[in-house]
Amino acid sequence: MSESISYKNNQLHVEGIGCQSLVERFGSPLYVYSKSQLVNNWQQFQRHWPSPHKLCYAVKANSNLAVLQVLAHQGAGFDIVSGGELQRVLAAGGKPQSIVFSGVAKSKDEIILALETGIGCFNVESEAELERIQDIAAAMNKQAPVSLRVNPDVDAKTHPYIATGMKANKFGIGMAQSKAVFKKAAQLTNIRLIGADCHIGSQIMTPEPFLDAAKRMFELLVDLKKDGIELTHLDLGGGFGVSYQNETPLDKAQYLTELVEMAKDFPNVTLMLEPGRAIAANAGVLLTSVEYIKPSEDKRFVLVDAGMNDMLRPSLYQAWHDIVPVKEKSDEAPQISDIVGPVCETGDFLGHARHLNVAQDDILAVKHAGAYGFTMASNYNSRGRPAEVMVSGNDARLVRERENFDDLIRGEHLLDKDYI
Ligand code: LLP
């Protein structure tokens, strides 16, 4: 349990506010974030990451404007993967120069927007993308700052859907091929080649794959220097694992210290990291109300009002999230239950075979829901997405309204009568 989300007097609190009262005030299901936990998580990284090295928060983990605003206030940089994320960062007060733009298939419009904005770096993933950026930058009479994403071919030992750094993945340029692309980039007139980057995957629990990738990337810098290409920026991506179910979390302090040590041989190189989950996951919970209890022949189903459309991780990755009652009931025997949502899919579940003591109308909290929770939510089954609330001390602010029917059909058009 995070420090800021814990039981006080048998009631689950986010900082100073009871979860029950949050649901009474803002409705259910509800995403709730702790501002102090976000800030603490950010500062923990910074503590071991001396200037000039930089941190860019991976916006995809949680892109709520208020979350971005809190991090921008901490001086965060941002790692984005779309024009939408770029505009969110700007709307939240992030500085254009502090933005790196990742992603395998950047569109022309996204590249134009990023060049107009003056972002800090394009993390380029293919030769074709490099050529497209060169053409657009030339037409706009601009210089595009570029890093090339290299695929270091390291096994991150994580869920196959979130491993990105092996040859078989669609991401980055293969190590062997990359030298030719660096040489080409160095010669393009509207490309300012500044760096190299990699990202080997997400939810990685040990430092070895990261250090292995870092070593290969530093070797690449040495090789490139021999060819007259001197890079000043090395971005090692995100992927720092968090503990969802009593796993030993990655020792960030040790890893960051080792990286800074490695970088000492490269005094002109600024390191960059792109943490997402490690900043947001334990700062958020998803509160959900029990609609019905349904005993069946061999199972007990707890039907809740949050489904896979609100929280996709269990269905998509068979991911474990702790699910706890917001009122602790220590004196009764728990029953083994499947916690399932209202969506018409057998794969719609939040947790299987959980030992829980719950009754109709109780409220449950899905923990570690601050990262890849709301951002992966959808309107499947025409369900409005939940509201989001940010708590600071004893103060709770609505930072995103619950979607209503008007929101669901915004932009849709009925056909004219003669067209039906
Ligand atoms: N940088 C790049 C280029 C990335 O692709 C990602 C995540 C990150 C940084 C941030 O990684 P983090 O520090 O959050 O692990 N939806 C999945 C996670 C997908 C991650 C995709 N890329 C999940 O819910 O587990």
Summarize the structure in words.
It is built from 12 helices and 21 strands. By secondary structure, the chain is of the alpha/beta class. It is globular and about 70 Å long. The strands form 3 sheets. Strands 4, 14, 15, 16, 17, 18, 19, 20 and 21 form a 9-stranded mixed beta sheet that branches. Strands 5-6-7-8-9-11-12-13 form an 8-stranded parallel beta barrel, surrounded by 4 helices. Helix 4 (83-91) links the parallel strand 6 and strand 7 (99-101). It has 2 domains: 5-32 and 281-409, Lyase, Ornithine Decarboxylase, Chain A, domain 1; 103-273, Alpha-Beta Barrel (TIM Barrel). InterPro entries: Ala_racemase/Decarboxylase_C, DAP_deCOOHase_LysA, De-COase2_C, De-COase2_CS, De-COase2_N, De-COase2_pyr-phos_BS, Orn/DAP/Arg_de-COase, PLP-binding_barrel. It catalyses: meso-2,6-diaminopimelate + H(+) = L-lysine + CO2. Keywords: Amino-acid biosynthesis, Decarboxylase, Lyase, Lysine biosynthesis, Pyridoxal phosphate.
